[in-house]
UniProtKB/TrEMBL annotation:
This is ATP synthase subunit c. InterPro entries: ATP_synth_csu_bac/chlpt (IPR005953), ATP_synth_F0_csu (IPR000454), ATP_synth_F0_csu_DDCD_BS (IPR020537), ATP_synth_F0_csu_sf (IPR038662), ATPase_proteolipid_c-like_dom (IPR002379), F/V-ATP_Csub_sf (IPR035921). It is a multi-pass membrane protein. Its main location: membrane. The chain crosses the membrane at residues 12-33, 45-66. It is found in: Cell membrane; Membrane. The record marks E54 as: Reversibly protonated during proton transport. The gene is atpE.
Amino acid sequence: MDGSLNLVGLGLAAIGPGVGIGLIFAAFISGVARQPEARGNLQSIAILGFVLAEALFIITVALAFVL
């Protein structure tokens, strides 16, 4: 029973990074639509935010399988 509860928690924990990544790229698209010349700067910031959000989810996956 404990293992299945960990996986339920993992599924719930996937919601946070999913929403975060959606917000990151929505802001990126909005920013590029407003100022196309700032695309390079905005893209590097968006990718950094994506990597950080995914890193938190990967840590969550590791904890779900360890516990």
